[in-house]
Amino acid sequence: MKKTFVLVVLFIFPLVAYLFFASGVNNFGKLPTLTENVPDISQVDSSVTLDGKITILGFLGSDVEGKKGNAFNLNQKIYKRFSEFQDFQMVMVVPEESRNQIEPLREELSELSDDQRWNFALGSNEAILAFFQELKTDITLDADLYTPYVFIIDKDRNLRGRNDDEDEGVKFGFNTTSVAELNNKMEDDVKIILAEYRLALKKNNADRIK
């Protein structure tokens, strides 16, 4: 009996574990693409680009001071966890008229963490609205060009999200006013997309060696 138990532990359990994790990779290895070929944010602000970056994209609107709590939530729950990745960035879109509100927010963010991967794209109201519409989501901007939702954009400028979310079905964005949503959903999805790129990089490196 003891020998049988030892054999199960040594041989059967590792096999079961392998099959379980292999199945997980197949089912959860990629974050679904919901909108392809999102335009580059450079059409709003030429100093910022989405190309070649995993981007958390948000729209703070004209009242940046009033919405800084959203940025703090995002900073603490998402940015601080993933900012070590070189290809990761935050891009917050703000109307040109609110330019003077950005620096105070950046100073406060810098007190919480290294803010070098926080970027702010400034543009006209018309350019911001036109860009947002190209995301093709079920979310709208309010009159101040604000939404509490942020979006995951991959290196090829595709909007990634969930097509089988337990609460919303298709989930385009993540609500920055909800710490629970950032913790329980967005963090997992950012992990998935970063793992996806890491696996692709390892495969490419292995292929070069062959």
Automatic annotation (TrEMBL):
This is Uncharacterized protein. It comes from Flagellimonas marina.
